[in-house]
UniProtKB/TrEMBL annotation:
Residues 42-75 form the Translocon Sec61/SecY plug domain. InterPro entries: SecY (IPR026593), SecY/SEC61-alpha (IPR002208), SecY_CS (IPR030659), SecY_dom_sf (IPR023201), Translocon_Sec61/SecY_plug_dom (IPR019561). Its main location: membrane. It is a multi-pass membrane protein. It comes from Methanothermus fervidus (strain ATCC 43054 / DSM 2088 / JCM 10308 / V24 S). One of its GO terms (cellular component) is endomembrane system. This is Protein translocase subunit SecY. It is found in: Cell membrane; Endomembrane system; Membrane. PANTHER family: SECY/SEC61-ALPHA FAMILY MEMBER (PTHR10906). Belongs to the SecY/SEC61-alpha family. One of its GO terms (biological process) is protein targeting. Component of the Sec protein translocase complex. Heterotrimer consisting of alpha (SecY), beta (SecG) and gamma (SecE) subunits. The heterotrimers can form oligomers, although 1 heterotrimer is thought to be able to translocate proteins. Interacts with the ribosome. May interact with SecDF, and other proteins may be involved.
């Protein structure tokens, strides 16, 4: 703890000059949360429409396959999206999970340090990732004289995203990271399904899957199943599976020890099957984006040790096998690619699920402490924190592993079928919207029954 105190003192002068969004001094009503969430969402859409001045007209999105997870808009000042925030989160999770940075996130001081450190790291990664995109050629300027101007615009956009995320986290619903992902994927789904304008690949045929399907039927042509129907079917399938999985839970019998907050004993405490939620997929995808960015930098300097990327598509090396396979035919044409990617992706989802549960104070010990302080007891056991933790240990670690593996497998499968909005993006969006729905329901319940606020805190 002495080392942590020294570290805090070292960074305190830097943290003191960082702007921050003031936390509310009162409980924010649901209507106000909805207002701030809506304002941030509108600002996000407006910022995605501001183009980068000085960007070469021949620029091609090198991360189109993973754009939904980054939640950025290529060629705009929000090109980086949430990439720096998620990368900073990955680094901090590894530092805290590996006990390199010894923080007790149940303590207010350590949690405040963690959040400030994450913001500082996010800003650093905005500069690093923006520089990497320009150096690697992913964001080519019209001339080298425009490179600093490009970087300045990217940095401004990246920092705006960091603070918009903070506004949502403190004054809105959910998190800015989830909100931006859902917004970007929803837009991609609507455009991908109903785009009425013709595709360059098929002049005269609407580019949207549904509009193109209807047009071909109306003109007496037979639409290709894999091109038009499979992405829509995959979208519906992923939606239904995620909604069903979100409703699956293990219920632990509990009883309240009495007190002024709750007069009626609670009979069941639910632990969701998707206990780590969709964070493992976000973190895994962000890690793969960074790997591709590093590969492009090595390629730019003439040492493609991680593989070769051409027009945004990895074509060889490690980065190729760790890129999302597109289309069911990959299983026949290049099964090694699909197998290696699937194993690595699912394994990383499990690892990040474990790290996320620990860092987010969702582990058995942290949850047992919360339940104990609320006066919750397990029937048939003594009302001690140790006994509650022992019961939770039976469920939380297995659910963490199963939940991480499940979302990883589902995202991998949806990517194979070429789901509208991207398989990973659809998975994340459905989970995010479902969590938002649950949060709104909790807020409404707490406004109707103020005594429940302590339980949902």
């Amino acid at each position: 703890m002495q080392e942590v105190s020294k570290l805090k003192r070292s960074f305190e002068p830097i943290f003191s000059i960082l702007p921050y969004v003031k936390a509310p001094a009162y409980r924010v009503p649901l209507k106000e949360k909805l207002k701030w969430t809506g304002i941030v969402l509108i600002l996000y859409y407006l910022l995605t429409q501001i183009p980068l001045y000085g960007l070469s007209p021949t620029a091609v999105d090198q991360f189109a396959q993973l754009r939904a997870v980054i939640a950025g808009s290529y060629g705009s000042i929000l090109t980086l999206g949430i990439g720096p925030i998620v990368t900073a989160s990955i680094v901090l999770q590894l530092l805290v999970g590996g006990k390199i940075l010894r923080l007790d996130l149940s303590r207010h001081e350590d949690r405040a340090f963690f959040q400030s450190f994450q913001k500082l790291l996010s800003i650093i990664f905005v500069v690093l990732e923006g520089s990497a995109l320009i150096v690697s050629g992913a964001l080519p300027p019209i001339s080298q004289a425009f490179a600093p101007i490009l970087l300045l615009q990217i940095v401004i956009g990246g920092i705006l995203v960091i603070y918009l995320d903070e506004v949502v986290s403190k004054w809105g619903l959910g998190s800015g990271v989830g909100l931006f992902i859902a917004a970007g994927v929803s837009q991609a789904i609507i455009v991908g399904a109903f785009n009425p304008f013709p595709s360059p690949a098929q002049p005269g045929v609407p580019a949207g899957r549904i509009t193109g399907f209807i047009y071909l039927l109306a003109t007496g042509q037979m639409p290709d199943f894999q091109t038009y129907l499979l992405p829509v079917i995959s979208l519906i399938f992923v939606f239904l599976v995620v909604v069903y999985a979100e409703s699956m839970r293990v219920e632990i019998p509990i009883a309240h020890g009495g007190g002024k907050y709750l007069k009626v004993p609670i009979q069941k405490y639910p632990i969701k099957f998707l206990y780590p939620s969709n964070m493992p997929v976000i973190l895994t995808s962000a890690l793969l984006v960074n790997l591709q960015m590093i590969a492009m930098m090595f390629q730019k300097i003439g040492h493609p040790i991680l593989g070769i990327v051409e027009r945004g598509r990895p074509i060889s090396g490690l980065v190729y096998y760790l890129s999302p396979p597109r289309g069911i035919d990959v299983l026949l044409v290049d099964p090694a690619h699909a197998l290696i990617y699937g194993i690595v992706f699912i394994s990383l989802c499990i690892v990040f699920a474990w790290f996320w549960v620990e860092v987010a104070n969702l582990g058995p010990r942290d949850l047992a402490d919360q339940l104990y302080k609320m006066g919750i007891k397990i029937p048939g056991f003594r009302g001690s924190k140790r006994h509650i933790e022992r019961i939770l240990n039976r469920y939380i670690p297995p659910l963490t592993i199963l939940g991480g593996a499940f979302v990883g497998f589902l995202a991998f499968g949806a990517d194979l079928t070429g789901s509208l909005g991207g398989g990973t993006g659809v998975l994340l969006t459905v989970g995010i919207l479902h969590n938002l729905y649950e949060e709104i329901a909790r807020e409404q319940m707490m406004e109707l029954h103020p005594a429940l606020r302590r339980f949902f805190k």
